[in-house]
Structure to design on (275 residues):
């Protein structure tokens, strides 16, 4: 099942579009936010342009806080439930893994070959996890490359140890896998590809909007509002020493629980419904 599901993902053009757009989008945003923005803030770029750096405080690219932010595989601008191109691409990967069979009718042949529905879902989960892991490694390579170029050209040095970098990237890859599994679960639950993408889009948009409204009314984001998927994925990649919300490991455990619940619900629906 794993090999068959991976073959389906590889041979669908939409999968490659999602991955390429996600990787390219992350590269562009990282270059802008990790390289160009500090140069503008510190006056080394566009120094003659009046007002262009207004509102930007000095940015120390050699600080641990800055470098931890630069290692965020969802984008250096990530904060709370904010949405980045890489985040959208990760969820899209999961949705495609969950809906492609239904869209093209392949689920019927799959069910004839493997009548046990949980076996079908298990193959999709495994294939999605493998594909998301590979995608997470690609995203990790991008953020590390941009950080190293920024540090070397800025004349500073790495404030993080190799263990810190490895830990941040590993947690980022785990976050990528868990978000992709949530996308898979939504795809299997909804079945229709367009409807699944609309559902995911609604979830992505609703999270920061909800947090903004609650924060405005309550004067701050309450604890429960941090227990939303994108916020948990961001918290999972944060600096453990300065994390203002949940500790990264705890955030990943909660995110894993949400992914497990969504996938379990998808499995129950797959088992009950006609194909």
């Amino acid at each position: 099942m794993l090999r068959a599901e991976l073959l389906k993902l590889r041979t669908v053009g939409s999968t490659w579009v999602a991955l390429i757009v996600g990787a390219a989008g992350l590269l562009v945003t990282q270059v802008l936010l990790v390289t160009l923005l500090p140069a503008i803030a510190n006056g080394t770029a566009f120094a003659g342009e009046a007002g262009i750096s207004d509102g930007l405080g000095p940015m120390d690219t050699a600080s641990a806080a800055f470098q931890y932010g630069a290692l965020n595989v969802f984008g250096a601008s990530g904060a709370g439930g904010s949405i980045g191109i890489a985040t959208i691409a990760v969820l899209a990967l999961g949705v495609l893994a969950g809906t492609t069979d239904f869209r093209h009718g392949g689920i019927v042949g799959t069910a004839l070959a493997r009548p046990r529905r949980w076996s079908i879902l298990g193959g999709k989960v495994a294939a999605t996890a493998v594909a998301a892991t590979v995608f997470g490694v690609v995203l990790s390579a991008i953020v590390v490359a941009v950080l190293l170029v920024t540090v070397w050209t800025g004349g500073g040095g790495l404030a993080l140890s190799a263990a810190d970098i490895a830990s941040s990237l590993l947690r980022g890859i785990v976050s990528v896998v868990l978000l992709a599994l949530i996308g898979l679960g939504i795809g299997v639950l909804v079945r229709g590809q367009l409807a699944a993408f609309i559902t995911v889009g609604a979830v992505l948009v609703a999270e920061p909007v909800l947090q903004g409204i609650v924060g405005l009314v309550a004067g701050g984001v309450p604890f429960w509002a941090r227990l939303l998927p994108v916020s948990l994925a961001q918290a999972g990649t944060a600096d453990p020493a300065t994390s203002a919300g949940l500790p990264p490991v705890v955030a990943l455990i909660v995110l894993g629980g949400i992914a497990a619940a969504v996938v379990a619900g998808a499995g129950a629906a797959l088992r009950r419904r006609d194909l």
Notes: The chain has a mean pLDDT of 81.
